[in-house]
Automatic annotation (TrEMBL):
InterPro entries found in the cross-reference section: MetI-like, MetI-like_sf
Annotated PROSITE patterns: ABC_TM1 (PS50928), PROKAR_LIPOPROTEIN (PS51257)
Transmembrane segments: 12-35, 79-98, 110-130, 142-162, 183-208, 258-277
Matching CDD domains: TM_PBP2
Record SUPFAM superfamilies: MetI-like (SSF161098)
Cellular localization per UniProt: Cell membrane
UniProt KW keywords: Cell membrane, Membrane, Transmembrane, Transmembrane helix, Transport
Highest taxon above the source species: Bacteria
Source organism per UniProt: Paenibacillus baimaensis
Family note: Belongs to the binding-protein-dependent transport system permease family.
Topology versus the membrane: Multi-pass membrane protein
Boundaries of every ABC transmembrane type-1 domain copy: 75-276
Residues making up the signal peptide according to the UniProt record: none
Protein's recorded name: Carbohydrate ABC transporter permease
Length: 292
């Protein structure tokens, strides 16, 4: 005897699922088209024509763009900013949040009030630019890392998450002779793995997609990030000025396929990282939302 109950499909379900499917396909369609264009062989490429799947496959555009010094320089710059920036973001955010949870911290409420105040009011673009300039960080990768070591929203969420951790465990560790750094490293961080994974993904995506600050602070084209280079290729058509034109003569693939390949290469790393952090990310997005 089967006790499985089959849910009756209503008209609302049909309409709902149909709309969700259309929205999903519409979001996926541009990515598939750009990927298809980047894999199209130059022998069958026709400008301003649409093909969902290439008639003839080729990796020439990827080989071409990966052989250019400008793309490799942009990739190295973006990797450095993303890895170093994300690690420093985690270090400063979690250590400061842990400090704000300690009631023994002098003027703790005042410091937390300043954090909340900065969430509502900011200095603005021009003071930030002059700050970076006066610190001598212009045309330096640190101009994209140091001014954003942490932010008010991350501090508030991580602090709320740490407040929800069991206080008894930390007090027991201190009674046994564990220092504040020992409690932070041996208890707080292991219990904060979902939050660490989620915020690492947040920070990494933010650094990887750095565009405006890189365009404003990096004046040397050899230090451009991937996003600035892709923008230059797609919108400004400045491939020759940025060194993208490799001297390989007539064997160069069409410019449209090169631009599409650059776009795909710029978004692939984040797509590869997300599945490995998805388990912790699902838990981490809820950190600080429930206390008790």
């Amino acid at each position: 005897m089967s006790f499985v109950q089959h849910k009756k499909i209503t008209l609302f379900d049909i309409v709902n699922y149909t709309l969700l499917a259309i929205i999903s396909v519409s979001c996926l369609f541009p990515f598939v088209y750009v990927l298809s264009l980047s894999l199209t062989d130059r022998a069958v490429y026709v400008p301003y024509t649409f093909h969902l799947f290439p008639e003839k496959w080729s990796l020439a555009a990827y080989a071409y763009i990966l052989s250019s010094d400008s793309f490799l320089n942009a990739l190295n710059s973006t990797l450095f900013i993303t890895i170093v920036g994300s690690i420093l973001n985690l270090a400063f955010t979690f250590t400061m949040a842990y400090g704000l949870t300690e009631k023994r911290l002098p003027h703790r409420k005042w410091i937390y009030g300043i954090v909340v105040f900065s969430l509502v009011f900011s200095a603005g673009l021009i003071p930030g630019f002059f700050l970076v300039k006066e610190l001598g960080l212009m045309n330096s990768y640190w101009a994209l890392i140091l001014p954003s070591l942490t932010n008010a929203w991350s501090l508030i969420v991580v602090k709320s998450f740490m407040d929800s951790l069991p206080v008894e465990v930390m007090e027991s560790a201190k009674i046994d002779g564990c220092t504040d750094l020992g409690v932070f490293g041996r208890i707080i961080l292991p219990l904060s793995k979902p939050a660490l994974a989620a915020f690492f993904l947040f920070f990494a995506v933010a650094h990887w997609n750095t565009y405006f600050n890189a365009l404003m602070f990096l004046t040397d084209s050899k230090k451009w990030t991937l996003q600035v280079l892709v923008k230059s290729l797609v919108l400004d058509n400045r491939a020759s000025t940025s060194g993208m034109e490799a001297s390989i003569g007539d064997s160069a693939p069409p410019s449209e396929t090169v631009r599409s390949a650059a776009i795909i290469l710029a978004i692939l790393p984040i797509l590869f990282i997300y599945p490995f952090l998805q388990k912790h990310f699902a838990k981490g997005v809820m950190v600080g939302s429930v206390k008790g």
